[in-house]
Design a protein that fits this description.
- The complex is a heterodimer.
- Chain A contains 6 helices and 6 strands, in the order E-H-E-E-E-H-E-E-H-H-H-H.
- In chain A, helix 1 crosses helix 5 and helix 4 crosses helix 6.
- Chain A has a single domain, classed as Pyruvate-ferredoxin oxidoreductase, PFOR, domain III (Pyruvate-ferredoxin Oxidoreductase, domain 3, 3-Layer(aba) Sandwich), CATH 3.40.920.
- In chain A, strand 2 and strand 3 form a beta hairpin.
- Chain A has a 6-stranded mixed beta sheet, with helices on both faces.
- Chain A is globular.
- Chain A is α/β, with parallel strands linked by helices.
- By secondary structure, chain B is α/β, with parallel strands linked by helices.
- Chain B folds into 2 domains: about 180 residues, Thiamin diphosphate (ThDP)-binding fold, Pyr/PP domains (Rossmann fold); about 110 residues, Rossmann fold (3-Layer(aba) Sandwich).
- In chain B, about 35% of the residues lie in helices and about 20% in strands.
- Chain B contains 13 helices and 15 strands.
- In chain B, the strands form 3 sheets. In chain B, strands 2, 3, 4, 5, 6, 7, 8 and 13 form an 8-stranded mixed beta sheet that branches.
- The radius of gyration of chain B is 21 Å and the shape is globular.
- Classes of the chains: A alpha/beta, B alpha/beta.
Amino acid sequence: MEKMYKEIRLSGSGGQGLITAGIILANAACIEGINVTQTQSYGAASRGGASRADVIVSSEDIYYPEAQYFDILLCLTQESCDKFVSNLKEGGSLIIDTTFVKNYPVVQADVYDLPFTQIASDKLGSVLPTNILSLAFTVRTSKVVSESALKEAIIKSMKPAYLDLNLNAMKLGFKLADSFLEVE
Amino acid sequence: MAKKKKVKAVLMQGNEAISYGALAAGVNFFGGYPITPSTEVAEIMARELPKRGGKFIQMEDEIASIASVVGASLAGAKAMTATSGPGFSLMQEGIGFAKMIEAPCVVVNVMRGGPSTGLPTDPSQSDIMQARWGSHGDAPAIALYPDSVLESYELTIRAVNLAEKYRTCVTLFSDACLGHMREPVVLPDLSQVKIIHRIQPTLPPEWYKHYPENPKYISPLASFGEGYRFHVTGLAHDAHGFPTTRPDEVARMMDNLRNKIVHHTDDLVQVEAIAMEDARIAIFAAGITARAAKKVVVALRAKGKKVGLLRPLTIWPFPDELVKQYLSDVKGIIVPELNQGQLSLELKRVLGHRKTRKIVEVQKNTGELITPQEIINAMKEVH
C-alpha cells in the first residue's frame, strides 16, 4: 500500500455539527480499513463558542492524535479561519464557508470558497445539514475517503428522521464540488 | 490458501471502550453522577446494564454515588462509577472507606483541567497524586492509565479484575482527550479474556471472618444476604469487622491493607518500553501524553537518534523497580505531563540525583496537549 498521511481539521462554532462531521469522516475511514483517529475540542456550551474536530488518516500507526499542520482545513466561521489558517500546509486545501468567512489571507493552497450555509438554506430548506454538505464537498475534492464509505457512514450515524435530508446534502455537496472543479 | 475471516474494526470512543470493558469484566452495578468529560460512560451503562440484568442508578451527587457503589459491592455486585476531577474530590471519603472495608470497586476518573471546576472540556493529568493521597490515612492505591481506545477497554477489564482480586478500590484514569477520542478497534474475543471474581467463602457462616487474620492473605468476601454475618465500619477493626483499638489488631489490619499491594507489585505493575535497549535519552510519559512521545520516538529513531519511551500503564503502585532498571543509566529523561510535575516528582524520588543524568520536565496545564515538538525542544536541554 502506498504511504499516506493526512491531517484534517473541521472548524467552526458549536452547533454547526462539525464534531458529528468529524465522527462521520472517521467512520468512513474505519469502514475502508484506513488507520484513523478523531479528536475534538469544544467549549462548555452546546451552542456557540469555538468548536473543532480533527481527523487524521494514515496508512501507518497514528500516535499524536491532534491535527497540527492541516492538509485540509474546513472553516465555517471567520474566527476559526483567523485562528487556524496559518497552520495550513503548503499545497493543502482550504475550504471556507463565505456565508460567514468574509476575509481570508492569500495562501499557498487550493482554496474552495462557497457560501455553504446559504446554499443549504436555499437548496435544502435548512441550515442543519451544512456540515454534511461541506463534508461531502471536502471528500469529493480531496478523495480522502471513498464516497461509498462516506455514504455508509452517514447512514450509520444519522437518525432515520434526518437521513434523507442529509443524503440530499451529501449529493448536493458532490455536485457543488463538480461544478467548482469544472470552473477551475 | 486458507482465508482467515477478517474481523472488522469498529470506530469507538475512549469512554465507550471503558463502558464495554466494564461490561465484559462483569460489572453489573453502576452508581454515578454525570460529569464532563466522563458522561458517556454513565450514558452507555444506563442503556446497557438493564438489558443485561444489571443495575444503573443516577445518584444525587458524587458522594452518594461512591456510597452506592460500596454498598452494591458488599451485596456481591461488581460495582463501578465514573467521574472527573470535581467528582473525584467528592468521592475521596468513600474511596477511603472502600479501601478500609476492603470492598472491591472501580472509580473511573476522566481527567479534566482543575483545580475546582477548572476546564470541563479539556484534558489534564493533574489527579495523578490525588489517586494516591486523596483520602486521609495510610492506604496504598492501585491506579491504571491507558493511552489508546483499545487499551481503555483492556485496562478497564484489568481494573475490575484487580479490584476483585485485591479487595480494594481501583482508579482507572483517562482524560478529556482520550475519553472523547475515536479510533478503530477490534475488541478481543471474550472467551480469551481472563475475568477474575472475588473469592467466595467456603466455610460455614459461623466460622466466617470478613477480614484475614494473617496479613499475608486476602480473605474471601461474603455478600450480604447470603447468611454470612459481618460488621462493616470505617473504624479500625478486627477480623470480624468490629471496632478495635488493640494495637496488635490494628497492626494486623494496617499491615494487610499495605502488604496486599506492596507484596504484589509484580502482578500489579505494567509498563511499556519502546526502543529503550540502547536509548541515551528516554521519555517518561503516561496516558495521552505518551502518544506525543511515541511520535517523537518513531521520528527521531528514523534519524538515528537513540531515543526511547518508558510508559507506565500502572501509575500506582509506582513502577519503582522498572523505572530503576530502564532509566538509571540514560543521559537524559524528558518527563512531559499535563500538570505541574506529579509524575516527575515520583521519578525523582525513585532515581534520586545523579550528576550525569538530567531530568527535563515539560509541563502544561492550559487544557492543551503537549506536542511532539515541545518534547523534542526539551531534549536540547540534555547535553
